[in-house]
Amino acid sequence: MKNKFAFLGVFLLVSTMMLGSLPNDAEARTEYDTILRIATQAHNEIKIQLDRTDRVSDEVKILFKEGTQE
Questions:
Q1: DSSP one-letter code for 38
Q2: What percent of the residues of the chain are helix, what percent strand, and what percent coil, each to the nearest 5?
Q3: Could you tell me the mean pLDDT of each successive run of 10 residues in the chain, 70 residues long?
């Protein structure tokens, strides 16, 4: 009787260890629409701030225009 309980205990312990060590596949899901919306809002905010600023160098204007075209 003791052997049956010992065998059952060892079997449960080993099977639990084996099942616990299986890799869990996790996948991050990227919401491209959300990222695009955030980037568009950031672009619009930068444009508004550049328009409000009196002293913006020509280099910054050119870089912003090139970035917008890209």
A1: H
A2: 75, 0, 25
A3: 68 69 61 84 90 86 85
